[in-house]
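R.M. (postdoc): so does anyone remember the format we settled on? I'll just put the structure tokens first.
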């Protein structure tokens, strides 16, 4: 029976269980097997440790500024006497959602409908806009000059043909 358990452990089912991707039947079977076989329980514990170590090794530490921002927001909440946010459950959902075509939407109110742009970007946009108009005018001018030159070349070729005929 031990060979069958080892084969079960190596099948990958325990990994899916730890990742939360196992079906309810598989979850129930694993819970039952880990009470019966200490090898399954030990393998599950080892996988949990391995996954945790892998997550720690791949974790990206946030910049130090993030902690100060979180601390400042918590301090601001405490100063203003606000409580922790409520859990979003069925009772609060009805207060914050509206029904439309069978879908639920969370109402969001914006403080300001205008988009703020840094002052330097406004000047850069203005310069790019003016330069684009200058390039447009130049391209139209050179296009017309080219057409005029092509017309003159055709006329000169026509005159040369007429002179050769004489």
């Amino acid at each position: 029976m031990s060979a069958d358990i080892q084969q079960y452990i190596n099948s990958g089912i325990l990994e899916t269980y730890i990742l939360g991707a196992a079906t309810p039947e598989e979850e129930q079977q694993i819970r039952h097997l880990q009470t019966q076989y200490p090898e399954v329980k030990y393998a599950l514990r080892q996988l949990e440790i391995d996954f945790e170590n892998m997550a720690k090794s791949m974790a990206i530490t946030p910049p130090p500024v993030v902690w100060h921002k979180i601390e400042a927001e918590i301090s601001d909440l405490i100063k203003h006497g606000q409580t922790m946010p409520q859990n979003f459950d069925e009772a609060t959902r009805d207060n914050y959602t509206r029904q439309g075509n069978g879908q639920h939407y969370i109402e969001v109110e914006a403080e300001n409908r205008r988009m703020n742009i840094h002052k330097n970007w406004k000047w850069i946009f203005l310069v790019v806009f003016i330069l684009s108009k200058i390039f447009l005018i130049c391209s139209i001018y050179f296009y017309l000059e080219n057409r005029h030159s092509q017309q003159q070349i055709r006329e000169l070729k026509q005159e040369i043909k007429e002179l050769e005929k004489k």
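R.M.: ...and that's the designed sequence above, right after the tokens. Also worth knowing: The first helix runs from residue 2 to 10. DSSP finds seven helices and two strands in the chain.
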